[in-house]
Queue: 4 jobs
Job 1
Amino acid sequence: CTFSDNTATTLGAGMYNTDATPVVINCTFSGNAAANSGGGMYNRSAAPSVTNCVFNTNTATNNGAGMFNNDSLPVVTNCTFSKNSANNNGGGMYNNQSAPAVTNCILWGDLATAGGNEIYDAISDPVVTYSCVEGGYAGTGNISTDPLFVDAPNDDYGLQFGSPCIDTGTSEGAPDADILGIARPQDTGYDMGAYEYDGK
């Protein structure tokens, strides 16, 4: 599914989840704009499973341009966040009293005017592992090196040859294929992000 160019006068322009446990797979959230928070996705008391998804060019006038988690427990696996922009905090993801599990993800090139370009935590305890986070983030297997997207200016978030995100993810909880249906893994290990590098 594609959620694109939607607007919200308050929260959750692309998707708003409250007291819900949706399963979101192989989706793109792009160009969505929230006048308050959660440009791409807003979660309140929710536990969504979000896998192989791309969050790009979403905006929030307040917090959490890509994803805003409020008292929520999302499981975010093999997702890519890039070029999301918040006027306050959390360009990629904003966590408020939440404990998301973020695995095999790439958060790179997001922007927050006040702070927390990639991940902003307010009274939260996320577990971020085997992910590429610009500026760094504590957790097992995390890296902070340019993921070498194929063509980020034109929203192509596939991985180039030599990307540090190739073969550096974990198999635990990883999907059997990427957003395009390419089998995982293609080589000796699972890749980070929504796209598995297939050597092409």
Job 2
Amino acid sequence: MANFRVQIENLAGASSFNSAQEEADYTTMLDNFLLQSARNVLDVLDDSYINQNNIVATVNSSSGYDVTNMKLSKVLRNGVGCVEVPLEMESKVQANSKSIYEPTINSPVFYIKGQTATGAKLFIYPVPTVSEPGELFFLAIPSTISNTSSSISNFPDQAEYAVVLGSAVRVIQHKMNKLLHDDEDVELAQVIQMELQTLNQMYMVELAQLNGMPITKQPEGEQT
């Protein structure tokens, strides 16, 4: 399979450069566009895609688990689903808290606590142990994506084309902005805008499918 740069340029067109620095800036921009698009796609993914591609991590202590850059889908304790509670409930879910909200092995809970030094951590109560472990089901949110790659690690294969489309939309938007504000070529910008509308429509359709929304085709000859 072609790498992401080739796939994006097949949709948005290739760019020309006057210097090595210009091309370096362009490839950095592609990397950023790929990362932004991947995170947008993860935000809309239907549960069916998430469940098919989950990574599972085991938790068996009170020290919490780093969930920075994770899209969580399920949290279990010894096979029992945990309910998320707000951080304000932290003191009430501790062991021997004497609170009516103190969880049990049959009704475990979790909360997420953001911490500057260590990132966001997830805590499960009652505290999981080796014999009664916690399990986190999640997708990893990419931290970097290279335009020279042809796949995204730990990312649903079905969703990668949407990442390419989203990146191509951003590239064309960038080209149009440059034509308007730097080159002041309004006529060519209008042509690019038509390409942008077509590509953005393809992107929206792909996102809708990944979100589990039915795609209805308008009957031929029918006008809205």
Job 3
Amino acid sequence: LVRRFGDFTAVASTSFDVHRGEIFGLLGPNGAGKTTTFRMLCGLLPASSGHLEVAGLNLRTARAQARARIGYVSQKFALYANLSVRENLEFFGGAYGLGGTQLRERVADAIKRFDLQADARSGDLPAGYKQRLAMAVGLLHAPEILFLDEPTSGIDPLARRAFWRTITELARQGVTIIVTTHFMEEAEYCDRI
């Protein structure tokens, strides 16, 4: 996998595979190309060259089908700050194709599971709760693969520990987790790095 921006090579001949239910870590300092790799694997950025396959689907020929099977939690809060927790969940649930009773049940389950206040304005949440909401949105459509881009950056140690408990439980349930981090102690939670 290669990604160039003009003369600059952001990702240089990276190759790896990840097994179902595995927690796979991309470890490296800021600027190492972790987020660029993620964006390619999520179908958000085209690769300059190489073969991209996610959930058994080629991203060059089946991008929409692959994206429907993955969840993504970005490094920075990327939800709508002016919407409530419930409104964000409902909006993104609809974008994932959920509706009616299924959407209402999934939103209620997410609010309960991540201990969120449904009517709280998302932009006013503390950093740890913003990440909980982002994780809830990423899991709403029950993806097979969850991409977590430095998910615990900027949150307190207790929230970080709780976040990793959730990640470990998801992997036990068969969800494949691919996580970027520059924290060595977090890399120890991964099955492979």
Job 4
Amino acid sequence: MTALFRISAAMGGVLRTTTDPMIAQIRLAWWRERLEELETQPAPAEPRLAAAQRLLLPRGISGADLVALETGWARMLDPFPWSVETSEGIWFRGVKAFGLAARLLGSPDERLQQAGGLWALVDAARHCSDPETRGLLIERARTIAKGLEGTRFPARLRPLSMLAALAMRDLARGEPFEPEGTPGRALAMLRHRLSGRL
């Protein structure tokens, strides 16, 4: 699981540390190409790629599966205000990441995939500086949240679904978003860990 999310975090790190969108695209393309090669040649001397090859490929997670995460991150380089298509790319990244995680846990779950999409949209909104785009992301997230209300996740999936519980808390409270790491957010995670309900 750590190997999976470190790959996604590496791509997110490209966006956080690169101010020039063209350079960011080049850096993301490097990740995409290396992931595409994982099944045909040894991983380069990059610990996250080596871990993905060693730990994910034997468990049925292909390089192509991981490339789908890059597609969603790349959409975040679109100029503001973002379009519906950009929001769909962000949603898909969350769907794909949580779907792969569920496969690693041996519990494929379509509801968890939707929870991942919800989390990705709200997480993007939390870090978005453009008010119009933020509104679009929140509106899309609220639509998904309605379909997930009352869903109860099995215990083994709750370390992931608790992120969706935080996203729903953010949507309910509205802007300005509550800072991360507050006691209220910790309590919401604990409550979901025990009940499994969104």
